[in-house]
Design a protein that fits this description.
Two copies of one chain form a homodimer. Chain A has 14 helices and eleven strands. The interface between A and B is large, with 67 and 67 residues.
Chain lengths: ~400, ~400
C-alpha cells in the first residue's frame, strides 16, 4: 500500500470517530494458525482438526472443528487463518497499524508432551519469521507491522524445565513479545503449584501473558436447543477466563508475582462484574481470606484487559473497576482516574466473527472501535482513546518511541 | 419493638448513609426453609439434607448439605433458617421494614412429581400463614412485615396442568406475590416449549418470578484446590443465572411474553457485562438473530434485578445497562436516565453469608446498603436510592400506598 493511500485511509478512519484520534491503532487480540499448525490439524482424525467437507451447495471446502460435538459441524476455515497477506489486508481495511498475533486455540493442548515441546519451538521460530519479515509499520520508524505471542508446551506430562527452556527461546526472539496461554496449565489448571517456576520465569522475562479461553464450561448447561455457537462463545468463553484468573488470584499467584503482566481476553470476561461478590464470598471464608494479601478487588488493578467487549458501557465499567482497585489494597488508596484507560487494549479477535458478506468491513471490529470512541473514559477523551487504541500496547510491549 | 425504638433505629440507619433516605427499606432477596420443608430435608439420607453432626469442638449441631460433595461438609444450619422471630430480629437489626421471603434452594427439585406437587401447595399455604400472621409494618398502614414468593412443582414428570393449578392457588394467597424459580424447569431448562402455558399463566397472573441459581456450573472447572464455597458461590451461581436467562431470551420467551416480570438474583449475574458480546455473537449467527425481535441488549430493560452486587460501581453499571436497553429495541430509542434505578431492588440473601461473630451487623447487608448509598445513580441521588431501597419493591408487588 502506498504511503499516500495509507495516510488517506488513516484520515478516513480517524474522521469516522466521535473525536479525532492521533495515535496508532494496535490490535492485541488477533489470531493465526501458522501453516505448520494448520498442517498438524489437517493430519488429525479427531477434534481439533481441519477436515474436508462438501458444503450444502456442493462445493468442497475445509472446515475447522475445534471441539468434539461442536454445533454446525464446526466453521469454515480458509486463508484468513494462515495467510499473512490476508492478515495484512484485514489490517489495512480497518486502519490497523500494528498487530500482536497469537496462535488461536486450542494451541498445543491436545498433543503428547514430546510433540508439544518440539512444535512449540518450531512454531515460535515460525512466528518470529512471520513477524520479522513483515512490512515496516508506515509512520512508525523501525517498527514492523507484526509482532507476536509465542507458545509454551503447557500439556500434561511435560517437564517444567522444558517450559522454562521455551521461555528462554522466546526471550531470544525479538518480535515475540509474550505468550498466549489457555487455562489448563499442565493438566490441573493455572493454580497448580508445579507452575511456580513458570510464573517466576515469565515475570523475570517481562513477557506479557495473554490468558485466553478455549473450553468454556460443560455444554450440558446450555441445554438441548440449537443456538449455534452463541452460548459457548458469548458465555462459556468469558466464564472460563473468569474462573481461571480467579483461581490464580485465590492461589496467591498475583501476591507472589505482582509484576506478572497478564492480559485477559474479552475484557476479563465476567470478573469485573463479579469482583465485589467474589470479595464478599472470600470475606465470609476466613481460611481463604487469610491466604491473600489484599481484598480480591485489588488484583483487578494488576491486570491488563483487551477492549473486546463490544460496548462503551462495558469498557467504562471495566475501566472504573481497574480505577477503584487501589482502594482495596492492604494499605488503602484512592480511586485512580487514568489507570483504567491505561490497562485496556484494542483487539479484534480476527479471523473469528467474520462479516456475513466478504466485502464488508468487519462488524465486530467496527463495534469494538466504536465502543472505544463512544466510551466516556472518566472524561479523559481523546487521550484515553489513543491509549486504548494503541499507545498502551506500544508501552506494554516495549515499543514506545 | 416499640414505635419509638423503631423510629430511633430508622433514623440511626438513615443517618449512617451518605445522604438521608426517607423511604422504606424492603428486602426482596431473603430466604426461609419453612418448618415443613426443614422436616423434609431432615428425613433424607442424600443431599439435599439436614443432618446431625458433631463439630470439631465436640458439640452436636445440625448441618445443611445442599449438594453432594459440597466442601466443608456443608454449612451450619439453625433457627435463622426456619424461625420467623429470627427473621424479624434480623430485619429490626438492619432497619428492614418489609421482607419478601422465598424458599431457599433447591426448592422441590429433588422430589418425585407427586410429592413436589402436594408439598408445593402445602408450603404455599404455610408461607401465606407465615406472612399473613406477621406483625404490621410500623409506619405502613395496612401492610405486613412479611410477604412471600411461592413455589411451583417444577420437576420432571409433572403435568403442566398441575403447575397451572398451583399458579391459581398462589393467586388466591394475598401475601404471596410471586414465585421463586430455579433454572431447571421440568428437567430441560427454562427454554423448554412445554413451559409456554406456565409463562402465559404467570404473565396473566402478574406474579413476579424470582429467578435464582442452585447448581452453578460443573465443579470440575473449579479445580482440585480447596477454596471453600468461594468459587461455586461467587462464580458458579451467577453463571447459572446468566445461562438460564440467556436461554430464555434466545428461545424468544421475552418476545412472546413481554409483560413477564422476571427478577434476576445477584443483579443478573454476568448478563450485564456480557450482553454486548452476546448481541455480537447473535449478530454473527443469522439463524439465531432472525428468531428474535430485538437486539439482545434490549431484553435487559424488560427485567428486574436485585441489588445484591456488593459494590456501587456494579450497581451503577447494571443501572446503565438497563438505561441503554431501549436504544436496542427494533424501533430504536434513547437512553433512559431513570429506568435503571427503577428496576434494581435491595436484597440481603439472609440467612446466607452470616457474620463471623453472632453479635455483629451482617457485613453482607451493610455492603449492599452501602453500595446503594454510594452509587451515583445517574445523578438522581436520594430519589434513586429510595427507589432501590424499597419504593420499587412496593410498586412491583402492588403494595404502594
Amino acid at each position: 500500500m502506498s504511503r499516500v493511500h495509507a495516510l488517506n485511509q488513516l484520515s478516513t478512519r480517524r474522521a469516522s470517530g466521535m473525536s479525532r484520534s492521533k495515535g496508532p491503532l494496535v490490535d492485541v487480540h488477533t489470531h493465526v494458525y501458522l501453516p505448520r499448525y494448520a498442517a498438524e490439524l489437517r493430519a488429525r482424525t479427531a477434534a481439533p482438526r481441519i477436515m474436508n467437507w462438501t458444503n450444502p451447495a456442493g462445493k468442497a471446502e475445509e472446515r475447522l472443528l475445534i471441539l468434539d460435538g461442536e454445533p454446525n459441524a464446526g466453521r469454515p476455515v480458509g486463508p484468513q487463518y494462515w495467510d499473512r497477506d490476508e492478515k495484512l489486508q484485514f489490517m489495512r481495511k480497518h486502519g490497523i497499524d500494528i498487530s500482536f498475533v497469537s496462535s488461536a486455540n486450542p494451541w498445543l493442548d491436545f498433543l503428547p508432551a514430546a510433540r508439544a515441546d518440539s512444535l512449540a519451538r518450531e512454531l515460535n521460530d515460525d512466528l518470529e519469521d512471520y513477524c520479522s519479515t513483515s512490512p515496516e509499520a508506515e509512520g512508525f520508524s523501525g517498527l514492523k507491522t507484526l509482532y507476536g505471542f509465542g507458545l509454551l508446551p503447557l500439556v500434561p506430562g511435560i517437564e517444567i524445565s522444558h517450559i522454562l527452556q521455551t521461555i528462554d527461546q522466546i526471550k531470544s526472539l525479538h518480535h515475540v513479545r509474550g505468550v498466549i496461554m489457555g487455562t489448563q496449565g499442565i493438566g490441573k489448571g493455572l493454580d497448580d503449584e508445579a507452575l511456580e517456576p513458570v510464573w517466576e520465569a515469565l515475570q523475570e522475562a517481562n513477557l506479557v501473558i495473554f490468558l485466553h479461553p478455549h473450553y468454556g464450561v460443560d455444554s450440558k448447561a446450555f441445554g438441548e436447543k440449537s443456538n449455534g455457537h452463541v452460548l459457548p462463545l458469548a458465555l462459556g468463553f468469558p466464564f472460563e477466563t473468569t474462573i481461571s484468573i480467579t483461581r490464580l488470584i485465590l492461589a496467591g499467584v498475583l501476591d507472589r508475582y505482582p509484576s506478572l503482566r497478564i492480559m485477559l481476553a474479552h475484557s476479563g470476561g465476567a470478573l469485573p462484574q463479579l469482583s465485589s461478590r467474589l470479595a464478599s464470598c472470600i470475606d465470609h471464608d476466613p481460611v481463604v481470606a487469610k491466604r491473600l494479601k489484599h481484598n480480591a478487588r485489588y488484583y483487578l488493578g494488576q491486570l491488563y484487559y483487551d477492549a473486546v467487549a463490544y460496548g462503551p458501557e462495558e469498557l467504562d465499567f471495566v475501566s472504573g473497576i481497574i480505577g477503584r482497585s487501589s482502594r482495596y489494597g492492604a494499605g488503602g488508596g484512592q480511586y485512580q482516574t487514568q489507570i483504567g484507560s491505561q490497562r485496556l487494549l484494542f483487539g479484534t479477535d480476527h479471523p473469528f466473527f467474520p462479516p456475513l458478506e466478504a466485502s464488508q468491513k468487519w462488524q465486530s471490529v467496527e463495534d469494538n472501535l466504536g465502543a472505544i470512541r463512544a466510551a466516556h473514559w472518566n472524561g479523559l477523551g481523546v487521550a484515553a482513546q489513543d491509549d486504548v487504541m494503541g499507545n498502551n500496547a506500544l508501552r506494554l510491549f516495549g515499543l514506545s518511541q
